[in-house]
């Protein structure tokens, strides 16, 4: 099938390849220890198939969303490869790794409120995917209490993002109801 959006396809292939390379030595922290790249791929899939999102900058940012936070990638590198706009979405959804984790968790809640529409979509898909992973493949050493706290924190973040994509918000509510 011929695509009417060859540039969009090219962008998404470049973003997929870039993320796969950057995350090449990483595994997810769940008991299945899946290849890390499964996670950003899942986000893009959720946005497209469950959220009906057709904006390629949002999809590319989803593929790249953990490269700043979890790999050696720099903002400048993302700007060079993907442009200012996509780099800024990735930056918006990235925690500052030098901060204490408790501070980072609080910041995610306050920053979510002010995030751009594209960043909010990526965040929402991230929370859906993370809770699904927490159910399907919980991290080995996480207590029940810690998993519950994680669900509650994700809900707090999502509360700040609402009004952006009802279908995805419904998906989030659905997975939240499976809180352990
Ligand atoms: Zn993520």
Q: In short, what is this structure?
A:
By secondary structure, the chain is mainly α. Helix content is 68%, strand content 0%. The longest helix has 20 residues, at 117-136.
Explain this structure.
The protein is mostly helical and about 180 residues long. Helix content is about 70%, strand content about 0%. The radius of gyration is 16 Å and the shape is globular. The chain binds zinc ion. Zinc ion binds near residues 39, 65, 66 and 126.
Using DSSP, what is the number of strands?
Answer: 0
In CATH's first tier, which class applies?
Mainly Alpha
Number of DSSP helices?
Answer: 9
Task: Please tell me the overall pLDDT.
Answer: 94
> What series of H and E elements makes up the topology?
HHHHHHHHH
Strand content: under 5%
The helical percent reads: 55-70%
Indicate the low-confidence ranges by residue numbers: none
What is the CA–CA distance across the termini? 43 Å
User: Gyration radius, to the nearest Å?
Assistant: 16 Å
**What is the approximate shape?**
globular
Ligands, deduplicated: zinc ion
What's the CATH H-level homologous superfamily? Hypothetical protein af1432
- For the record, the CATH architecture stands as Orthogonal Bundle
CATH topology: Hypothetical protein af1432
Q: How does the helix and strand content classify structurally?
A: mainly alpha
Largest sheet: none
> What number of domains?
1
């Amino acid at each position: 099938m011929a695509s009417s959006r060859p540039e969009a396809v090219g962008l998404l292939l470049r973003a997929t390849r870039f993320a796969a390379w950057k995350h090449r030595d990483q595994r997810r922290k769940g008991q299945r220890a899946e290849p890390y790249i499964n996670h950003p791929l899942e986000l893009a899939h959720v946005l497209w198939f469950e959220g009906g999102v057709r904006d390629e900058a949002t999809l590319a940012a989803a593929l790249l969303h953990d490269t700043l936070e979890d790999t050696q990638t720099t903002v400048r590198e993302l700007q060079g490869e993907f442009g200012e706009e996509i780099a800024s979405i990735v930056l918006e959804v990235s925690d500052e790794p030098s901060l204490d984790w408790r501070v980072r968790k609080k910041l995610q809640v306050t920053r979510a409120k002010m995030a751009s529409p594209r960043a909010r979509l990526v965040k929402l898909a991230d929370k859906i995917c993370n809770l699904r992973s927490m159910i399907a493949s919980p991290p080995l050493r996480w207590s029940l209490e810690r998993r519950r706290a994680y669900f509650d924190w994700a809900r707090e973040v999502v509360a700040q993002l609402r009004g952006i994509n009802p279908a995805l918000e419904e998906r989030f509510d659905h997975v939240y109801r499976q809180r352990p």
